TrEMBL record:
<dbReference type="InterPro" id="IPR011032">
    <property type="entry name" value="GroES-like_sf"/>
</dbReference>
<feature type="domain" description="Oxidoreductase N-terminal">
    <location>
        <begin position="13"/>
        <end position="102"/>
    </location>
</feature>
<dbReference type="InterPro" id="IPR041694">
    <property type="entry name" value="ADH_N_2"/>
</dbReference>
<keyword id="KW-0560">Oxidoreductase</keyword>
<protein>
    <submittedName>
        <fullName>OLC1v1007949C1</fullName>
    </submittedName>
</protein>
<dbReference type="GO" id="GO:0032440">
    <property type="term" value="F:2-alkenal reductase [NAD(P)H] activity"/>
</dbReference>
<dbReference type="InterPro" id="IPR045010">
    <property type="entry name" value="MDR_fam"/>
</dbReference>
<dbReference type="Pfam" id="PF16884">
    <property type="entry name" value="ADH_N_2"/>
</dbReference>
Length: 102
C-alpha cells in the first residue's frame, strides 16, 4: 500500500526451558533466546492483539511442570519439554490491537 509506514521489526525474546528441576528453579534452568524476530503490528482485517510481556509468573504449578518425568502427576499433566518456550500467566502491555475490546 503506497504511503504506508512499515512497522519496526524487533528481536523476539523468549524464555526457553533448558533443564528439568529438582526443587526450586534456578536461573541456569532457563535460557534467553533472541534469535527470532517479530513485526510490531497486527495485520489489517484481523482481530489480533500484539502484546509485550513485562512479567512472567513462576508459581508452584509451573515448577510442577518443570519436573518432567520425576513429577508424581506426570501421567496426568504434560510438563514442559526441554528447549520449548515457557508458557504461563504474566503481565503484558498491549502494543497493537485490531480487536475492539483491546
Amino acid at each position: 500500500m503506497p504511503g504506508r509506514i512499515e512497522a519496526p521489526v524487533v528481536k523476539n525474546k523468549k524464555v526457553l526451558f533448558k533443564m528439568y528441576i529438582d526443587g526450586n528453579p534456578k536461573e541456569s534452568d532457563f535460557e534467553i533466546s533472541t534469535e527470532s524476530t517479530i513485526k510490531l503490528d497486527v495485520p489489517e482485517g484481523s482481530n489480533g492483539v500484539l502484546l509485550k510481556n513485562l512479567y512472567l509468573s513462576c508459581d508452584a504449578y509451573l515448577c510442577f511442570l518443570m519436573q518432567g518425568a520425576k513429577s508424581s502427576m506426570a501421567e496426568t499433566f504434560d510438563g514442559f519439554k526441554l528447549g520449548d518456550p515457557i508458557g504461563g500467566m504474566g503481565v503484558s502491555e498491549v502494543v497493537d490491537s485490531k480487536h475492539p475490546k483491546f
